[in-house]
Amino acid sequence: MGFNCGIVGLPNVGKSTLFNALTSTQAAEAANYPFCTIEPNVGRVGVPDPRLDRIAGIGKSAKIVPTQLGFVDIAGLVRGASRGEGLGNQFLGHIRETDAVIHVLRCFENDDITHVEGSVDPIRDAETIETELMLADLDGLEKRVVAAAKKAKGGDAEAKTQVALMERALDALRAGRPARTVAVATEERSLWNQLQLITTKPVLYVCNVDEGEAATGNAATARVAARAKAEGTEAVVICAAIEAELATLGPDEKVEYLSAIGLEEPGLNKVIGAGYSLLNLLTFFTVGPKEARAWTVHRGARAPEAAGAIHTDFERGFIRAETIAYDDFVALNGEQGAKDAGKMRSEGKEYVVADGDIFHFRFNV
Question: Helices in 154-266 by DSSP H: which ranges?
Answer without folding.
Answer: 157-174, 189-194, 219-231, 240-246, 251-260
